[in-house]
Amino acid sequence: MTAPSATVDSSDMFHRAKQRTFRGFSGDAEHQWNGPFYFIQAADPQLGLMKAWKDGNCDGGGDEWTEEVELTKQAVEATNRLRPRPRFMVLCGDLVHSMPGTEFKEGQERDLKEALKGTDPSIPLVFVSGNHDIGNTPTPSTVEHFCRTWGDDYFSFWVGGVLCLVLNSQLFFDASACPQLKEAQETWLEEQLSRAASSSSARPKHILVFQHIPLYLKNPDEEEDYFNLQKGVRQKLLDRFRKAGVKAVFSGHYHRNAGACHDGLDMVVSSAIGCQLGEDAHGVRVVVVTADRVVHRYHSLERLSAAGMDEDLRALLEA
After folding, report:
1. pTM above 0.90, yes or no
2. Where is the Calcineurin-like phosphoesterase domain (predicted)?
């Protein structure tokens, strides 16, 4: 899919985050716990990677993205058929493959918006920035482009008594070209965590974090590489999240399922809607939030389309 498609006005389709607040949910009612609910976590539609991976040119390829468009549409259709419908669907980064300023980025972003256009209006879409969205070393201009196209790169929202924090993990990974943006996110995050931990009137039932790069893949002490955060950064975030009572961190980036739970903090790494780098199928994760647990399971798109969410997860919503 290389030919330009019609321009899509995302403001008509998506509740984009502005001023660090997500507009898909509003009102004090969302600060109150009203019983179990669920949402869909997806990652890495990354339009263009499948062709680039086949060609062995992941740095400069990506001139074809029909497969990813069809997979994204399949994810949207499967999600629309779920009953009850999820409270929201979050895409944890690498929305497209082309890096900022490269040839195919505009077309990929346009076609992803078109593929997501079929999402039922009752299901808000939450967008997380990934390294391919803002660059491995983001700059003020690449972050500004993401914010203009998809909404704020970090923000918070409440849903059903749960506080959700969306973070720009690239600012943790390499903010050498935009240190002021890193400092601003750090200040904002500390305010959010401190407020949540000290609040007596509207203390969240759970705190959930969404970012692109995992803190770690399997173990908090593992060596650092392309697919996780550096050890020093990782440990500081783990300490801050545990102190504030964060229940789970949801991520993508790895294009395989991974993760673990240590000291009560669940690190969830979900495989991709798009290109698979391991043995997993194209899919999304169903996440059920109850009063005392956050239970999640990866579903292939084929399985979710044919049978919906697993019955044991559905039963948690009725408990």
Report:
1. yes
2. 81-256
- Closest to 28 in 3D by CA, of 160, 125, 123: 160
With contact defined as beta carbons under 8 Å apart, do 259 and 268 qualify? yes
Q: What is the pLDDT of residue 10?
A: 39
The two three-digit tokens of residue 35, written as one number: 């019983």
Report how far residue 66's alpha carbon sits from residue 132's, in angstroms, rounded to the nearest whole number.
18
Beta strands (DSSP E) in 121-215 are 125-128, 155-159, 162-166, 206-210
Strand segments (E) across the chain: 17-18, 21-22, 37-42, 89-92, 125-128, 155-159, 162-166, 206-210, 246-251, 258-262, 265-269, 283-289, 294-300
Tell me the per-residue pLDDT of 186-229, one tens digit each, with 9 for 90 and over. Answer: 999 999 999 998 866 679 999 999 999 999 999 999 999 999 99
- Token output for 211: 């970012």
Nearest by Cα to 252 from 231, 235, 228:
228
- If one counts every other C-beta atom within 10 angstroms of the C-beta of residue 96, the result is 29
Domains and CATH numbers, the chain: 17-316 (3.60.21.10)
Residue 95: burial class (beta carbons within 10 Å; 0-12, 13-18, 19+): buried
**Do residues 210 and 165 make contact, with C-beta atoms less than 8 angstroms apart?**
yes
